[in-house]
Design goal:
- The complex is a heterodimer.
- Chain A has 2 domains: 50 residues, no CATH class; 78 residues, OB fold (Dihydrolipoamide Acetyltransferase, E2P).
- Chain A is built from 1 helix and 7 strands.
- In chain A, strands 5-4-3-6-7 form a 5-stranded antiparallel sheet. In chain A, strands 1-2 form a two-stranded antiparallel sheet.
- In chain A, strand 6 and strand 7 form a beta hairpin.
- By secondary structure, chain B is α/β, with parallel strands linked by helices.
- Chain B has a domain of 143 residues: Thiolase/Chalcone synthase (Peroxisomal Thiolase, Chain A, domain 1).
- Helices cover 39% and strands 17% of the residues of chain B.
- In chain B, helix 1 packs across helix 11 and helix 8 crosses helix 12.
- The chains are: A mainly beta, B alpha/beta.
- Chains A and B meet through strand 3, strand 4 and strand 5 of A and helix 6, helix 7 and strand 5 of B.
Chain lengths: 138, 402
């Protein structure tokens, strides 16, 4: 796993609960305690009018729909050279927030806007697990 | 959105009284020019603009620069002032990505209106094509998205615009050829501009058969990278006349900004983008006292073909979802409904933010655009976009005072 050369997240201290949960293969989302609303990406203060620092980390359903996607034929770093095309997508979670992610475990040509997806966890290094999504199989 | 710009009338009065003008423009050679530094391009462009205005270097008392993607400096404007050999009493580095060039004009106007400076040199130059390192390019792509929550998924800059394009096509039934038409028009216009990097004719078929970078965007849906510099001198009509400027003056009639998001993760829907573009335009239109139908020639940010379509709709030139067919019918070409980026834009001429958009708008209103001249051009709109259709700026220029 030490061979992973693609970009890893540059952590901010306040996002620790998110990445720790991902390592446990759980998707958690920050929620303002006073506004009772989810937000994403995680921040130290709620981005809503309340500006609260009282933030709950709630386990998310892990389900959502593809809001938009793009099959990338060229990656952002040399580590992507020679790789097959991959799907970058914005997924709208059932909790109402959007997440940038990859759609995996399917052929890129199968991905459509509105497609129902569920979270899977990719342990890319010993320290980092990236939540990704695959089509719901049911 | 009625409350977005409650002080339009007041702003209009200020611009009416100040009579802020662009008194000179300059652009260096654009293309692949490996033997010149970022600061050389900045200086050469400045010299050309000063000479074009017919003023002295020592008449410049304000300077606005942007940033360099090659030579990173903590204080770009003053670093340039030192290199160029000026001691301005007003200096600022504007760094709002592709919204920068347009906002330089506005910021110069604000500096002038508040008495901070009288003659402001606005300049950008960079050896982006020849000078940027592979790690510098990666850093730039990383900066264009969220380093923690987007970049690890391999999102690229074309990819960010592709995400917007895909959604746009889904909502309005737009087709890849609608996007391609914007690139075709840009190339057609660039072929008439001597100082343009790509002039070989381009067809819709060429665009659609070019390499897919990030679907639905092909290679020719993406802007070019170039080396070069461009500059303009912003002052007042009174000052220009006292300095003996002989070139026709181009008057600033309106200006505005609009903001949507920085990261696509924070985007609610396409309406949020349209509102940001629309608000930026609204401030400019209301200050100028004009609307989209009064614009004779438009200079819209065209980092990708999708960008221009969204701006055409957000600025009210065509209804939402109709910019694609409008482009494909050739209505953005010289001599047609709304000539767009008569210099070839970022897609074909050169990429220096919207610097050349401002320069070409000035040339059009001075009647100096040669084979690209829009007959009777009186009013021009210039729009810049930074980030992934994130941050917007608009100015309206006119050949007559407000």
């Amino acid at each position: 796993m030490s061979e992973y050369k693609k970009p890893l997240p540059e952590f901010r201290p306040e996002t620790k609960p998110y990445w720790e949960a991902a390592k446990r293969h759980e998707l958690v989302l920050p929620k303002s305690k006073t506004d009772n609303r989810f937000f994403f990406y995680p921040r130290a203060l709620s981005p809503f009018e309340d500006m609260t620092q009282e933030i709950d980390w709630e386990k998310a359903s892990g389900r959502g729909k593809v809001w938009t996607y793009s099959v990338h034929h060229m990656g952002p770093t040399p580590a992507y050279k020679g790789e097959p095309p991959y799907v970058v997508a914005l997924v709208e979670l059932d909790e109402g927030v959007k997440m940038m992610t990859n759609i995996v475990e399917c052929d890129p040509s199968e991905v459509k806007i509105g497609m129902e997806v569920e979270v899977v966890f990719d342990d890319v290094t010993e320290e980092v697990t990236l939540p990704k999504f695959r089509p719901v199989r049911s | 959105m009625a409350t977005y710009f409650p002080r339009a009338e007041e702003t209009r009065e200020i611009l009416k009284k100040q009579r802020v003008v662009i008194a000179g423009v300059g652009e260096t050679e654009q293309g692949k020019i490996p033997d010149k530094s970022s600061f050389q391009f900045l200086s050469e462009a400045s010299k050309l603009a000063i000479e074009d205005a017919g003023i002295k270097k020592s008449d410049v008392d304000g300077v606005i620069t942007a940033f360099s993607l090659v030579e990173h400096t903590f204080m770009h404007c003053t670093t340039f002032a030192d290199y160029f050999g000026i001691r301005p009493r007003f200096f600022s580095s504007v760094a709002v990505g592709g919204a920068t060039a347009v906002w330089m004009v506005a910021e110069a106007a604000m500096a002038i209106a508040s008495g901070q400076a009288d003659v402001v040199l606005c300049v950008r130059g960079d050896n982006t094509l020849s000078g940027i390192s592979s790690s510098g390019m990666v850093a730039l792509i990383r900066e264009m998205c969220h380093a923690e929550f987007e970049f690890p998924y391999g999102l690229t800059t074309p990819g960010g615009y592709a995400l917007v394009a895909q959604r746009y096509m889904h909502e309005f039934g737009a087709k890849p050829e609608h996007l391609a038409a914007v690139a075709v028009t840009a190339r057609k216009h660039a072929s008439m501009k001597e100082n343009a990097m790509h002039k070989k004719p381009l067809t819709v078929e060429d665009v659609l058969s070019s390499r897919v970078i990030a679907a639905p965007l092909h290679k020719y849906d993406c802007s070019i990278i170039s080396d070069g510099g461009a500059a303009f001198i912003v002052t007042t009509e009174e000052k220009a006349k006292s300095l003996g400027v002989t070139k026709p003056l181009v008057y600033l009639h309106g200006m505005g900004q609009g903001y949507s998001h920085q990261y696509l993760t924070s985007l609610t829907d396409l309406t949020q983008i349209y509102d940001a573009i629309g608000n930026s335009g609204k401030k400019a239109y209301e200050t100028a006292g004009v609307g989209p139908s009064d614009i004779d020639v438009a200079f819209l940010y065209d980092c990708f073909t999708i960008t221009a379509l969204l701006e055409l709709e957000g600025l009210g030139f065509v209804p939402r979802g109709e910019a694609g067919p409008f482009a494909l019918e050739g209505r953005l070409e010289l001599g047609k409904d709304l000539p767009l980026n008569t210099h070839g834009g970022l897609l074909s001429q050169a990429h220096l933010g919207a610097m050349h958009h401002v320069v070409e708008a000035t040339l059009q209103l001075r009647g100096e655009a040669g084979p690209r001249q829009v007959e009777g051009a009186t009013t021009a709109l210039v729009h810049g976009n930074g980030g992934i259709v994130s941050a917007h700026s608009t100015i309206i220029l006119n050949k007559e005072p407000l």
